[in-house]
Amino acid sequence: STQGHRSYLLPSGGSVTLSEITAIISYGTTGLVTWDAALYLAEWAIENPAVFTNRTVLELGSGAGLTGLAICKMCRPRA
What we know:
The protein is an alpha+beta fold. The protein has one domain (3-74). Helix content is 27%, strand content 18%. The protein has helices spanning 36-47, 66-74, and strands at 3-9, 15-21. It has a two-stranded antiparallel sheet with strand order 1-2. Strand 1 (3-9) and strand 2 form a beta hairpin. Helix 1 (36-47) packs parallel to helix 2 (66-74). The chain is globular and about 35 Å long.
């Protein structure tokens, strides 16, 4: 099967686990797998949490939602 779960470890020791479909163009979409850009942006956000702390964040997508979830867990955006 091309569907599975992938866990991404965070510097806090926590993790983000996503359901992904590795066939990147499945059902006419590319949003079912984590993009490389999401990994880089999540890493940058974790290294620069002050940019997001107490701010409203709208993550419009770079795959399966890793960046937004990492920011929520690590950068304390406004709830």
